[in-house]
Amino acid sequence: RLTTNYYQRACPRFQDIVRDIVTNKQITSPTTAAGTLRLFFHDCMVEGCDASVLISSNVFNKAERDSDINLSLPGDAFDLIVRAKTALELACPGIVSCADILAQAARDLVVMVGGPYYTVRLGRKDGLISKASRVLLPNSRSSASDMIRFFASKGFSVPEMVALVGAHTIGFSHCKEFAGRIYNYSTTSPYDPSINPRYAEGLRRACANYQRDPTMSAFNDVMTPNKFDNMYYQNLQRGLGLLQSDNTLVVDARTRPYVQAYATNQTAFFQAFSHAMEKLSMYGVKTGRWGEIRRRCDAFNIIKT
Ligand code: HEM
Ligand SMILES: [Ca+2]
Ligand SMILES: [Ca+2]
């Protein structure tokens, strides 16, 4: 029901406008790519790819972005969508959905940081529901079974899941997400013994007094943090995985074969990632009267009381 040429008549410069805004933003704020990719994942997995994650809370409604897990989504990613929406409303008022802008921007950013190109079909409508209480996503302490069950419930296979989490080849995580692995791990070991000792020492230093400064963080991929490549999987094989949920992928027998495959063959990873992203980009999308074209991405057109 989505098409690649959806805006050809009503907003022919859609692709160019998004690309321009994305390029400028990524150059001035290089953390935009990772933040936006995560924002898109968190959008699609709750109510579908419908920009529900962009809605701001009001006195009547605690919206998705104020759920605990979404509080760490970076402002730059939201700002990018606001900028693109503003430019698109000037060029073609009332035509382009926020959900399409987010899907298109995420793809452009993946390509910009060296990742694979994939087709983004268009015609999503913006959703009419955004509730913090409905945000159920895996977290850094989820087990392999939890993650497999979560992705399976959305129709994603184990190899697709392992490919999608490969997005952790860019971006960073706050210290509190992995502090349990590097401080006071157990009575016999100061840190999780599955972590490379020198890496663990480095992380302990990087996160020293993170409790006083909660912004402290570490790159998800210690080797090539800003490049979209298959290094993430190679890291997992060497005890250089940052989150427990990352490390689990190389420990569990159901996911390990795909970690190995993607670690040895970047082409295989890129193919799997682009297919899985195309699929993710269409997950739960709304068309026709099931949604609206928001005037602003952070508010429904009609405020419900
Ligand atoms: C089992 C699945 C997953 C878990 C448990 C997980 C967990 C996390 C956590 C805890 C962070 C750190 C957030 C912070 O401290 O700010 C993070 C960051 C990130 N995640 Fe995931 N994630 C998962 C899957 C995915 C998927 C499927 C994608 C995209 C396709 C993704 C993209 C990202 C990106 C790009 C970042 C870096 C964000 C930034 O630099 O601002 N993650 N993830
Ligand atoms: Ca959504
Ligand atoms: Ca990388």
TrEMBL record:
<dbReference type="GO" id="GO:0020037">
    <property type="term" value="F:heme binding"/>
</dbReference>
<keyword id="KW-0376">Hydrogen peroxide</keyword>
<dbReference type="InterPro" id="IPR002016">
    <property type="entry name" value="Haem_peroxidase"/>
</dbReference>
<dbReference type="GO" id="GO:0005576">
    <property type="term" value="C:extracellular region"/>
</dbReference>
<comment type="function">
    <text>Removal of H(2)O(2), oxidation of toxic reductants, biosynthesis and degradation of lignin, suberization, auxin catabolism, response to environmental stresses such as wounding, pathogen attack and oxidative stress. These functions might be dependent on each isozyme/isoform in each plant tissue.</text>
</comment>
<dbReference type="Pfam" id="PF00141">
    <property type="entry name" value="peroxidase"/>
</dbReference>
<feature type="binding site">
    <location>
        <position position="48"/>
    </location>
    <ligand>
        <name>Ca(2+) 1</name>
    </ligand>
</feature>
<dbReference type="InterPro" id="IPR033905">
    <property type="entry name" value="Secretory_peroxidase"/>
</dbReference>
<feature type="disulfide bond">
    <location>
        <begin position="11"/>
        <end position="92"/>
    </location>
</feature>
<feature type="binding site">
    <location>
        <position position="229"/>
    </location>
    <ligand>
        <name>Ca(2+) 2</name>
    </ligand>
</feature>
<keyword id="KW-0575">Peroxidase</keyword>
<keyword id="KW-0732">Signal</keyword>
<feature type="domain" description="Plant heme peroxidase family profile">
    <location>
        <begin position="1"/>
        <end position="301"/>
    </location>
</feature>
<comment type="similarity">
    <text>Belongs to the peroxidase family. Classical plant (class III) peroxidase subfamily.</text>
</comment>
<feature type="site" description="Transition state stabilizer">
    <location>
        <position position="38"/>
    </location>
</feature>
<dbReference type="GO" id="GO:0046872">
    <property type="term" value="F:metal ion binding"/>
</dbReference>
<feature type="binding site">
    <location>
        <position position="43"/>
    </location>
    <ligand>
        <name>Ca(2+) 1</name>
    </ligand>
</feature>
<protein>
    <recommendedName>
        <fullName>Peroxidase</fullName>
        <ecNumber>1.11.1.7</ecNumber>
    </recommendedName>
</protein>
<feature type="binding site">
    <location>
        <position position="50"/>
    </location>
    <ligand>
        <name>Ca(2+) 1</name>
    </ligand>
</feature>
<dbReference type="InterPro" id="IPR010255">
    <property type="entry name" value="Haem_peroxidase_sf"/>
</dbReference>
<feature type="active site" description="Proton acceptor">
    <location>
        <position position="42"/>
    </location>
</feature>
<feature type="disulfide bond">
    <location>
        <begin position="98"/>
        <end position="297"/>
    </location>
</feature>
<feature type="binding site">
    <location>
        <position position="221"/>
    </location>
    <ligand>
        <name>Ca(2+) 2</name>
    </ligand>
</feature>
<keyword id="KW-0106">Calcium</keyword>
<dbReference type="InterPro" id="IPR000823">
    <property type="entry name" value="Peroxidase_pln"/>
</dbReference>
<keyword id="KW-1015">Disulfide bond</keyword>
<dbReference type="InterPro" id="IPR019794">
    <property type="entry name" value="Peroxidases_AS"/>
</dbReference>
<feature type="binding site">
    <location>
        <position position="46"/>
    </location>
    <ligand>
        <name>Ca(2+) 1</name>
    </ligand>
</feature>
<feature type="binding site">
    <location>
        <position position="52"/>
    </location>
    <ligand>
        <name>Ca(2+) 1</name>
    </ligand>
</feature>
<feature type="binding site">
    <location>
        <position position="64"/>
    </location>
    <ligand>
        <name>Ca(2+) 1</name>
    </ligand>
</feature>
<feature type="binding site" description="axial binding residue">
    <location>
        <position position="168"/>
    </location>
    <ligand>
        <name>heme b</name>
    </ligand>
</feature>
<dbReference type="InterPro" id="IPR019793">
    <property type="entry name" value="Peroxidases_heam-ligand_BS"/>
</dbReference>
<dbReference type="GO" id="GO:0140825">
    <property type="term" value="F:lactoperoxidase activity"/>
</dbReference>
<feature type="disulfide bond">
    <location>
        <begin position="175"/>
        <end position="207"/>
    </location>
</feature>
<keyword id="KW-0479">Metal-binding</keyword>
<feature type="binding site">
    <location>
        <position position="138"/>
    </location>
    <ligand>
        <name>substrate</name>
    </ligand>
</feature>
<feature type="binding site">
    <location>
        <position position="169"/>
    </location>
    <ligand>
        <name>Ca(2+) 2</name>
    </ligand>
</feature>
<dbReference type="GO" id="GO:0006979">
    <property type="term" value="P:response to oxidative stress"/>
</dbReference>
<keyword id="KW-0964">Secreted</keyword>
<keyword id="KW-0349">Heme</keyword>
<feature type="disulfide bond">
    <location>
        <begin position="44"/>
        <end position="49"/>
    </location>
</feature>
<keyword id="KW-0560">Oxidoreductase</keyword>
